[in-house]
């Protein structure tokens, strides 16, 4: 049908209001433009399409199948920009709509113009470029809405990319662009105003000028060269002639925006290599960090520029790159009246680590590790250093293990003050938890176990065994959490390979039946973490599982160390929970209770029931409810352990760092918590109503 089909389709679409029908129609138009030559009826079709722009309608939030405003806008945008035949008719009305009062209309219009830049003939764009650039400049400088400014800058880049000359840039014999005149390229519309502002006594809106220049420069290699070559000599000359801090900061800020366009190897401005000495003099790679707060804003701007010099392909040699990285590192490390300098230095190092990980590893990390181990280093500074290292490691997989290994080395070598062991161990744990949950967590965890978790565990064991003050309980717990985070990611075969050494080290201590309060028992948290992080399929290296659990129960009820007791109960609960056979679970539970219980009841017997209930209630095992009823009986009989029995109910369903948790492969049956509530709450309320003692009632409320 050809032209008849195009005209008929346009007539059929005219007046349509249903968003669902419009969505289908807008999706048909780009297909139609590819299948049929729409040239003869382009105006009819465009008039019908464009009457819907900008499109708005009320979206039914309650209806997940309804069309969203954003998807309909995108479909209309694709229809408007699907054919170069629409260019002559679209550009002027689109530019007119950039003056709309509505922020959403402005953004929609700028996004449509960005799409049009690559769809329409560049010659169609040029006549209205000056008007468009003026409006973009106004929206960027006024900046009433950041989203509008961002969309406007994207449009500027897209438009300049479309009209940019294809020929390579040539700057003539003197290396500078000629004086501006009416015959020059559309870049004049940005450059003239920028150069006027940069040469004025007072620079107005330097941040916005920089953004406009950056968008223009990023649009093509040619434009990057023209913008850089026009702006750089002006900034260099002014920096040589002014000592006013605010003016210097504004000039360098504009220069930073221009340089950022050259960080892409395909767009790097040729003139920058010729002006390398000027740039090095401006940014002073080896300059010290000013302590005076008055200079901090200028220094932060300079640090950003140094970062750009590092990122520009092939601009700095190896020694200059090292010097630059060390300057940024000192900004992150050294004390400054304005903490923003330290924060900016750390932020820039995170950015650089993602693109230059090898250089950051060799030039930056040694400075951080040395700073951590300085004499009398403050806790505040250590916290700042560790936060920076943590951010760098988490952002860059390539540098994660060197940072972790370095932190472990500082702890285990004794160089790091014991006062900072906890903060360092916490940072290691957080980094490992983040890495382990990443997309390649399963791949890197075997190395993290061997290179980080095991060395930390060995150090803690040796320090604890020698009664060193370094092995504080809170540090041991952080290391146990670290072990849990990575060990749970290993497969069962790899877990079994590591478990033998841990059982050889700790099992005798764990089974020790001794009433003495032994400080070494705090190390059993490490043992518990290894065992509790195992998969249900992982085989523990014991000959008789029932005898092993029974031995742990016997030791737990006799020990005076709550570290010892808790570790034993955590392991017992974990094994019971992960035992799939109901008969074996019942046998193991009887063995544990048989070895633990005697004529008298102690706190340990009460807590053991809590842990068994935690293990079995979560897998809907009747043995767990037997323990719960036993505990409730203690409460209603007003036993001397009623308070302990009541408080311990948080063990049954509460959180734990590694014992019987979903993260450590615990078994949690469907609706187990609901069943627990349905079974236990009625019994508690009935006992409360029948109780005559206020003490019993208080315990039941707990």
Report on this structure:
It is built from 36 helices and no strands. The longest helix is centred in the middle third of the chain and has 25 residues, at 441-465. It has 702 residues and is mostly helical. Keywords: DNA damage, DNA repair, Nucleus, Repeat. It is found in: Nucleus. This is MMS19 nucleotide excision repair protein. Residues 386-700 form the MMS19 C-terminal domain.
Summed over residues and divided by their number, the pLDDT gives a mean of 90
**Class computed from helices, strands and strand pairing:** mainly alpha
Radius of gyration: 35 Å
Taking the alpha carbons of the first and last residues, their distance comes to 81 Å
Low-pLDDT windows of residues: 169-183
Instruction: State the assembly state of the protein chains.
Output: single chain
Count the helices. How many? 36
Overall, the morphology is globular
The biggest beta sheet reads: none
Strand fraction band?
under 5%
Strand runs, count: 0
How much helix is in the residues? Answer: 55-70%
């Amino acid at each position: 049908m050809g032209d008849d089909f195009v005209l008929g389709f346009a007539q059929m679409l005219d007046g349509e209001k249903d968003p669902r029908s419009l969505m289908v129609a807008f999706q048909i138009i780009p297909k139609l433009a590819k299948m049929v030559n729409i040239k003869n009826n382009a105006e009819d079709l465009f008039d019908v399409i464009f009457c819907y722009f900008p499109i708005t309608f009320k979206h039914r939030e309650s209806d997940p199948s309804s069309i969203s405003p954003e998807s309909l806008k995108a479909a209309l945008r694709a229809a408007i920009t699907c054919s170069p035949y629409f260019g002559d008719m679209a550009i002027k009305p689109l530019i007119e709509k950039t003056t709309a009062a509505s922020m959403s209309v402005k953004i929609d219009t700028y996004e449509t113009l960005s799409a049009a830049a690559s769809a329409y003939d560049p010659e169609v764009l040029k006549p209205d470029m000056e008007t468009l650039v003026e409006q973009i400049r106004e929206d960027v400088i006024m900046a009433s809405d950041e989203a509008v400014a961002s969309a406007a800058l994207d449009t500027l880049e897209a438009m300049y990319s479309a009209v940019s000359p294809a020929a390579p840039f040539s700057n003539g014999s003197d290396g500078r662009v000629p004086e501006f005149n009416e015959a020059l390229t559309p870049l004049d519309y940005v450059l003239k105003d920028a150069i006027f502002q940069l040469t004025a006594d007072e620079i107005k809106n330097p941040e916005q000028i920089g953004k406009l220049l950056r968008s223009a420069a990023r649009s093509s290699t040619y434009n990057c060269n023209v913008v850089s070559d026009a702006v750089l000599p002006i900034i260099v000359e002014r920096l040589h002639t002014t000592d006013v801090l605010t003016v210097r900061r504004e000039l360098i800020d504009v220069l930073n925006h221009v340089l950022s366009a050259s960080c892409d190897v395909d767009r790097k401005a040729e003139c920058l290599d010729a002006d390398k000495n000027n740039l090095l003099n401006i940014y002073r790679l080896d300059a010290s960090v000013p302590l005076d707060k008055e200079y901090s804003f200028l220094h932060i701007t300079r640090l950003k520029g140094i970062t750009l010099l590092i990122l520009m392909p092939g601009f700095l040699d190896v020694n200059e790159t090292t010097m630059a990285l060390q300057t940024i590192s000192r900004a992150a490390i050294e004390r400054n009246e304005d903490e923003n300098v330290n924060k900016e230095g750390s932020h820039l190092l995170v950015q650089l680590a993602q693109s230059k990980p090898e250089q950051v590893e060799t030039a930056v990390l040694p400075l951080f590790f040395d700073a951590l181990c300085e004499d009398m280093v403050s806790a505040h500074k250590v916290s700042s250093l560790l936060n920076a290292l943590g951010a760098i490691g988490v952002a860059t997989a390539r540098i994660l293990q060197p940072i972790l290994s370095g932190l472990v080395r500082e702890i285990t070598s004794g160089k790091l003050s014991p006062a900072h062991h906890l903060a360092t161990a916490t940072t290691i744990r957080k980094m490992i938890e983040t890495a382990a949950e990443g997309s390649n967590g399963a791949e890197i965890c075997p190395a993290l176990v061997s290179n980080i978790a095991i060395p930390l565990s060995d150090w803690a064991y040796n320090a604890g065994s020698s009664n060193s003050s370094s092995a504080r309980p809170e540090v041991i717990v952080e290391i146990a959490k670290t072990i849990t985070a990575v060990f749970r990611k290993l497969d069962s075969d790899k877990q079994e390979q590591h478990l033998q050494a841990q059982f050889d080290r700790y099992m005798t201590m764990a089974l020790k039946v001794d009433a003495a309060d032994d400080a070494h028992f705090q190390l059993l948290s490490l043992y518990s973490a290894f065992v509790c992080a195992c998969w249900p399929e992982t085989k523990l290296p014991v000959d008789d599982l029932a005898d092993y659990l029974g031995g742990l129960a016997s030791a737990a009820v006799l020990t005076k160390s709550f570290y010892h007791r808790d570790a034993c109960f955590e392991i017992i609960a974990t094994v019971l929970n992960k035992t799939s056979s109901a008969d074996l679970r019942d046998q193991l539970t009887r063995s544990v209770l048989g070895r633990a219980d005697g004529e008298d009841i102690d706190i340990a017997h009460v807590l053991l029931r809590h842990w068994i209930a935690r293990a079995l209630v979560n897998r809907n095992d009747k043995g767990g409810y037997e323990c719960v009823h036993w505990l409730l009986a203690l409460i209603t009989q007003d036993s001397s352990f009623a308070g302990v029995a009541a408080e311990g109910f948080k063990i049954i369903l509460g959180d734990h760092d590694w014992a019987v948790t979903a993260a450590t492969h615990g078994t949690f049956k469907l609706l187990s918590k609901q069943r627990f509530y349905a079974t236990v709450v009625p019994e508690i309320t009935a006992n409360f109503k029948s109780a005559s003692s206020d003490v019993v009632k208080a315990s039941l409320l707990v």
